Amino acid sequence: MPKEKKPKFELNSVDDIFTTQEIRDERKLPRIRELPIREIADFPDHPYKVKDDEDMMNLVESIRENGVLTPVTVRELPGGKLEMISGHRRKRACELLGLHTIRGEVVKMDRDNAIIMMCDSNLQRTTILPSEKAFAYKMRLEAMNRQGERTDLTLSPVGTKLRSDAALAADVGESRNQIQRYIRLTELIPEILEMVDEGQIAMRPAVEISYFPKKLQKSLLMNMEREACTPSHDQTIRMRRLLNEDNLTPESIAAIMQEEKPNQKDKVVLKSTRVASLFPKDLPVTQREDYVVKAMEHYNRYLKRQREMDMER
What we know:
The protein has 313 residues and is α/β, with parallel strands linked by helices. It has helices spanning 14-18, 21-26, 54-66, 88-96, 111-122, 130-147, 164-172, 176-184, 190-197, 203-209, 214-227, 233-244, 250-257, 272-275, 288-312, and strands at residues 32-36, 40-41, 72-76, 82-86, 101-107. The longest helix is centred in the C-terminal third of the chain and has 25 residues, at 288-312.
């Protein structure tokens, strides 16, 4: 008897089963391509700083040796223009290398979804300044509120809808209160916000100061520079109380700032506006203290040599 032939089945791949026809059609074209750098605009109001610091130089060397390992993501605007979503630092590194193109993916995405993607992709960085978190969280929360994102999520079986700030908190691993504290920092004048980034003013005092009108913030800044110290949390709480009573004035700020604080009695504060230009552009903020100490050690050796030369004369 002839052997019975078994029916032959051809199994589709997993990709064929779970991808849409639109995606399969799109795959006829390369998703990752070389994009002209000069045609990619930065994301408007991009909250993350792109500095030519040590980290940037390390990225430059990595790209020089290995190329761009993680393609950038850009979105296509009306008229064919391109706007960066994720990859501002990679783009800058390529510019420093004199490259004209960068590997990237072009996506079609509305502005609010682009904001959310831009903020989330940068939150994976190892070092993020308070000011960067502040403006990123504000932009992302505003985008979520505009589109009503994730209002279908619930906190409990009874169906309580998840607020946008609670959804954001869950996404980034911060409490709702901490999210709101960061967003308050966007109300600070640039000089005081820079002091927060540099660790001269802690989060809680900075939040209290953020409620001051801009004129009174400037008055406080003048007093900080004159007294060579920053206000304690307790002092900012008292200032805030005076503000709520409509009694906060430049004079009351000066009176509070002139109080002696034991922990700052012998503290030396370098005014950022005076010394910022003296630091190398690629020096990270975290290394500035060591830089100042080494400069002082070098200057002390110079003074010692001068004294020895004077004694020999």
